[in-house]
Design goal:
It contains 9 helices and 12 strands. By secondary structure, the protein is α/β, with parallel strands linked by helices. The chain has a single domain, classed as P-loop containing nucleotide triphosphate hydrolases (Rossmann fold). The strands form 3 sheets. Strands 6-9-10-3-11-12 form a 6-stranded mixed sheet, with helices on both faces. Helix 4 crosses helix 6 and helix 6 packs parallel to helix 7. The chain binds adenosine-5'-diphosphate and magnesium ion (2 copies). Adenosine-5'-diphosphate binds next to strand 2 and helix 1. It holds the Pfam family ABC_tran. GO terms for molecular function: ATP binding; ATP hydrolysis activity. InterPro entries: ABC_transporter-like_ATP-bd (IPR003439), FeS-cluster_ATPase_SufC (IPR010230), P-loop_NTPase (IPR027417). This is Fe-S cluster assembly ATPase SufC.
Length: 252
């Protein structure tokens, strides 16, 4: 589904990704772990198309509807989203003055338009929103409030997952969705990710520092990102080894 080959990228003229290669197939969940400053968020931003993140080499392709290879790096961020990419932020942004419901309905209908589907009516949208909010144990009252404004860290992350459920992406890149979550919110987010994304036609890149989220969302593969490259790959046991021995010992 996703093929990253020798990806190199710079931020403010500073090389951060230095030849990163990764293949993700449909139905797979890949955890990306690594020390602070390794380039994990940079990878997410580069895949999402954030301005200021300059690709200096390599390629990224995403499989299209009919199995054709889409050159992801050629697309604008909204086109990447329409192609089925979702980026869950490490630090979700607050959008004062725009309610969650307005925001999500606009986003969902823009997405549907790009896919050649009819827009959802108000009633259809609310039904969908209620279902996804329920998965994440989010009160509908929260969906009426401005996007993320005054939300706790955990509420912001759950809100990101509600958004993901409504947009129904085929590839989700989740950047430290577990940061700022208490134990209950961690379990709820983990179960939400499984319910929404653990499907044969979807895939997830789960960026995380810690093993704990992986107790709920079992990865098929675990990769260590250090110094802008994948330096080690393995199965779920690699995450446990990292947790007990640390990045330096395992990935040196
Ligand atoms: P991680 O998510 O793995 O902790 P990041 O991708 O956020 O790492 O950052 C990788 C490196 O890029 C760090 O050294 C960070 O300081 C640097 N970096 C990120 N954003 C910028 C920026 N806007 N300007 C300069 N350096 C940046
Ligand atoms: Mg970090
Ligand atoms: Mg980060």
């Amino acid at each position: 589904m996703l093929q990253i080959t020798d990806l190199q990228a710079s931020v403010a003229d500073k090389p951060i990704l230095k030849g990163l290669s990764l293949t993700v197939n449909a139905g797979e969940i890949h955890a990306i772990m690594g020390p602070n400053g390794a380039g994990k968020s940079t990878l997410g931003y580069v895949l999402g198309g954030r301005p200021g993140y300059e690709v200096t080499g390599g390629s990224v392709t995403l499989d299209g509807q009919n199995g054709e290879k889409i050159d992801l790096l050629e697309l604008d961020p909204h086109e990447r989203a329409a192609a089925g990419l979702f980026l869950g932020f490490q630090y979700p942004v607050e959008i004062p003055g725009v309610s969650n419901v307005q925001f999500l309905r606009e986003a969902a209908n823009a997405q549907r338009k790009a896919r050649g589907q009819d827009p959802l009516s108000g009633g259809e949208f609310l039904k969908l929103a209620r279902e996804k909010a329920g998965l994440l144990r989010m009160d509908m009252d929260m969906l009426k409030r401005p996007v993320n404004v005054g939300f706790s860290g955990g509420e912001k992350k759950r809100n990101e997952m509600v958004q993901m459920g409504i947009l129904d992406p085929k590839l989700a890149i989740l950047d430290e969705t577990d940061s700022g979550l208490d134990i209950d919110a961690l379990r709820i987010c983990g179960e939400g990710i499984n319910a929404i994304m653990r499907r044969p036609d979807k895939a997830v890149l789960l960026i995380t520092h810690y093993q704990r989220l992986l107790d709920y969302v079992k990865p098929d593969f675990v990769h260590v990102l250090a110094g802008g490259r994948i330096v080690k790959s393995g199965g779920p046991e690699l995450a446990l080894q990292l947790e007990s021995e640390g990045y330096e010992a395992v990935a040196a």
